[in-house]
Every structure is written in structure tokens, then in C-alpha cells.
Amino acid sequence: HVQLVESGGGSVQAGGSLKVSCAAPGWVLSAYCMAWFRQAPGKEREGVAFVRVRNTRRYVAASVKGRFTVNQDTSKNTVDLQMNSLKPDDTGMYYCAAAAGDIWHCEVAEYTVWGQGTQVTVSS
Q1: In sequence order, which residues have a C-beta less than 8 Å from that of residue 66 and are 6 or more positions away?
Q2: What residue ranges in 1-124 does DSSP mark as E strands?
Q3: What's the longest Cα–Cα distance across the chain?
Q4: pLDDT for position 102
């Protein structure tokens, strides 16, 4: 049973920064696509950032491009999402997810393993 554990959420004012991290077993990070999704109340879940094994490819959604970066830290076995220039629209529950398989375009993979989520709140 694969367990993903998110941490680092919180509250920040618009324009501020936060980093959320996802802890995963090392073998998962070596074999899976990893991603961050978010969901705000009343809105559909949105894929925010995706990273292929050993950072061989990264992809971020247009809505966060230039502000968010995703990185797999192999020394800590984490996938980190650094969020800068945060906006109130970035508010939501942020979930870490994993998709098995040697997939190049992680943004279209099927994510079957999910963490419990961490809340990010950006006030204006």
C-alpha cells in the first residue's frame, strides 16, 4: 500500500509564498509520475504541476506557470511544490498523487494513488 503524505500548507496573504511537500517511498519516486492537484470548494479538481521520475520532465499548468515550480528531492524522498506570487484564486486543498508506469507526459497519466491533502489559503 503506497502512502503519500502532504505537508506545508497554511495561510498567506496575496503575493506571498508557500511550499508544500509530499513524502513518498523512494521506490515510488523512481517509478511513478508524481503530481500536485488542487480543488477549491465548488470547483473541479485541477492538475497544477507534474514531474517525471528523477525530474526528467516537469510540467506546470498555464494558470500557475511562472509562479509555481515542482521538484523531486531524491535526498529527502519528497516532491515539493514551491508557490510564489500567490493569488486568492490559488486557495484550495492541494493533493499529491502518483501514477504508475514509464510515462513521458505525466500531465495525461492516470493518477491512482492520492494523499490526504493539505489546505492552502490565500487572502487578499
Answers
A1: none
A2: 5-7, 10-13, 18-23, 32-39, 46-51, 58-60, 68-73, 78-83, 92-100, 113-114, 118-123
A3: 41
A4: 84
By the 8 A CB rule, do 111 and 35 touch? Answer: yes
For 82-119, the pLDDT digits (tens) are 999 999 999 999 999 999 988 999 999 999 999 999 99
> d(Cα 16, Cα 3) in Å, to the nearest integer?
30
The three cell numbers locating residue 59: 510540467
CA separation for the pair 61, 69 (Å, rounded):
10
Quote the CA–CA distance of 122 and 31 in Å, as a whole number: 33
Q: Cα 23–29–31 angle (5° rounding)?
A: 150
**pLDDT above 90: residue 5:** yes
Handedness of CA 35, 38, 44, 48 (dihedral sign): negative
